[in-house]
Structure formats: C-alpha cells, structure tokens
C-alpha cells in the first residue's frame, strides 16, 4: 500500500524509500536502468551505496529486486501488487468507483523525491480529470472529499446539485 501510507503485506514500513524503489521499477515495466532510478529517487548526487542499500532494504521487506551489472539495471524477480498501479489501471478501464475506493491519500506522502512528487501529482490529476470528464455527481462528491483539485471543484460549482459541496468548492476555488 502506497496511497496515504506505506505498508507491505499490511505492516507499516519504516523505510518507505525501499518501497518507492520497487514501485518505480514496477511502473517501468519490471526493469529500470540504474541511472534513471538515481535521477528519479534522489534530488542530489547520492552516495554510490544509496541505491544498492535501498534494494537490500526492499529484499529485507520480502520484495524481490535484483541488480544486473551487465545491463546496469534493477529488475523485479516477480510481479508486485501495488495500489498506485491498480489505481492507474482502474482509471484506464473507466472503473472510477474502484479507483476512488483505492485512493486513501496521496502517493507516499512523506517522500519528497522527484519520482514521488511527480507520481503524486500525476495520480491526482489523472483521477480528477477522469471524474470530471465522467461528470457523475456522486463520483464528483467522493473525489472532492479525497482530492482537492480545481477541475472537480469547478464542475461541482457549475452543476450546483449539492448546495453544501457547491459552497465548499466555491470557497476553496476563491482561495486559489
């Protein structure tokens, strides 16, 4: 679980950065070049041992990830289940109710890496845009409680079907 919290097999993880590495590799199709991972997971030039240490910590959590020196890439030993990946899949297939059920908060909210920051924004925009395009008032209100996004709030105000949601959205939009 990476949305709103960081857990592996239901247990809270103290070192979320290791999970972040696994998610990055999973989103890259199961294998990712070392240099790309370094640029995505670290803001500055990390110590040479930083990425191998994250991989070791991921393995200690039971997440199989290996490094191939000849390919200079990290690979997953087997597919992983991850709520952010499931969220993207549900939005892609149009199952917005399931996507909103999965959304328990922003992706890895305590991480400030370029990868986590970009993925948080992408996930929120993708969900907000899909819900706004769908236009279902129930999905809009649900999404508005989970994700404050201008596209959702503007549509709630323009529809005006729920006076309380309309007033709250209008007030929030004025504060932008």
Short overview:
By secondary structure, the chain is mainly α.
Rounded to an integer in angstroms, the radius of gyration calculated over CA atoms is 18 Å
Q: SSE string, helix = H, strand = E?
A: EEHEHHEEHHHHHH
Summed up, the helix count is: 9
General shape? elongated
Number of separate structural domains: 2
Helix fraction bin: 55-70%
User: Using DSSP, what is the number of strands?
Assistant: 5
Spans of at least 5 consecutive residues with low confidence? none
Largest sheet: 3 strands, antiparallel
Structural class: mainly alpha
User: Strand order across the biggest sheet?
Assistant: 3-5-4
User: Strand share of the residues?
Assistant: 5-15%
Question: Cα distance, first to last residue?
Answer: 31 Å
Average of pLDDT: 90
3D architecture notes:
With 176 residues, the protein is mainly alpha-helical. Helix content is 58%, strand content 9%. The protein contains nine helices and five strands. The strands form two sheets. A three-stranded antiparallel β-sheet has the order 3-5-4. It has a two-stranded antiparallel sheet with strand order 1-2. The radius of gyration is 18 Å and the shape is elongated. β1 and β2 form a beta hairpin. α8 crosses α9. It folds into two domains: 70 residues, Arc Repressor Mutant, subunit A; 92 residues, no CATH class. It starts with 6 loop residues before the first strand and ends with a helix. The model has no long low-confidence stretch (mean pLDDT 90). This is Transcriptional regulator. It comes from Nocardiopsis mangrovi.
